[in-house]
Structures are given as structure tokens and as C-alpha cells.
Design brief:
It is built from seven helices and no strands. The protein has 177 residues and is an all-alpha fold. Helices cover 71% and strands 0% of the residues. It has one domain.
């Protein structure tokens, strides 16, 4: 019977293949997720907890399996989100750059095609994203905002549940080969 570590860790670098996407999807999906993030909570306030640009950053960074690509993906999505949202430029850019780098770095060693692992990483990176956003807003902007751990954990769970079908849909957009 195979050990659980055989299913999670990538012992052979060739087994963790880099996923390729058409350029149209690499442009359209992040822009659509940012548009959702900026506009939908204006009409449906209860959907404000969804952090689709973060989930897209995590997904593309995990699938690229390259820290440089993940860093670039996170920086571009974060800066676009900063530019389109009504907030100071750079906060999401910095945080999503870190998320992209760490997600891509983790994907080198862990089999990220497993749905449970993807959900767990989505939960972890949501908490990471919220915590570092809180730190940067307090340190760089001097705003005394609260960090509600219980609410962040709940929203992290909800985002990880949304990530499961989202990642399955995005898997269908990968190029075969």
C-alpha cells in the first residue's frame, strides 16, 4: 500500500509538469477576477469576502511551478487590483507578489494536482494574504485597522471552498500536451 507521502511529495521533478495556458486566458481570467472583486461587492455586499484575484494568483502560480513566474503573476495581478480598486497603489501588489512566489515554490515539492492540497493551500494563502495586508496597511499607511482572526479563518474556509470548483474549471483551460 503506498504511503501518503508518495501521493503528496514530488519525488521526481518530471512528475510535476508545468502547465501551459493560452495567452488569452492568462490575460482574461485575472482581469475578470479583478473586475469581479471591484464591482460585485457594490451590488452584492455579502460576496465581498471572495478574493478571486488571490485565488487566480494561487492557481496560476501553482501550475507554473516556477518561483520567478509566480512572482511575476502575483505582482501583475496585485498591481492591477490596486490600480482598479480605490486604495493606495502597491499594497496588493506586494502581498500578491509574496503569495505568487511562495505558491510557486511550494508547487515544486508538492503535488498540487490534488484537490485537497489545493483547498488547503488556498486557505493558507488567504490567511497569509489577509495577515500581510494588515501588516502593510498598519506599517506603511499608519492605519489602525483590526485583524479579526475568527472572521479571517471563516472567510479563508469559504474562499478555499470556492477555490475547489474554480480550480477545476481553470484546469479545463490548460493546454494538453
Amino acid at each position: 500500500m503506498p504511503d501518503i507521502s508518495d501521493q503528496i511529495l514530488i519525488d521526481n521533478p518530471r512528475r510535476g509538469k508545468i502547465s501551459k495556458f493560452r495567452i488569452i486566458w492568462l490575460i482574461f481570467i485575472p482581469l475578470a477576477s479583478i473586475a469581479f472583486q471591484v464591482n460585485i461587492p457594490l451590488f452584492f455586499r455579502h460576496l465581498g469576502y471572495l478574493e478571486l484575484p488571490l485565488l487566480v494568483t494561487v492557481y496560476f502560480s501553482l501550475m507554473q511551478r516556477n518561483p520567478m513566474s509566480g512572482t511575476l503573476i502575483g505582482a501583475v495581478i496585485g498591481l492591477l487590483q490596486d490600480a482598479l480598486a480605490n486604495q493606495p497603489l502597491g499594497i496588493f501588489g506586494m502581498v500578491k507578489t509574496l503569495v505568487g512566489y511562495f505558491a510557486a515554490s511550494i508547487s515544486i515539492k508538492i503535488d498540487v494536482d490534488n484537490t485537497t492540497i489545493r483547498a488547503g493551500l488556498s486557505f493558507f494563502f488567504f490567511f497569509f494574504h489577509q495577515f500581510f495586508t494588515w501588516i502593510l496597511v498598519r506599517a506603511l499607511l499608519g492605519h489602525a485597522i483590526e485583524f479579526d482572526v475568527t472572521q479571517t479563518l471563516l472567510f479563508g474556509l469559504l474562499n478555499s471552498l470556492v477555490a475547489i470548483p474554480l480550480f477545476l474549471i481553470l484546469d479545463k483551460l490548460r493546454e494538453r500536451g
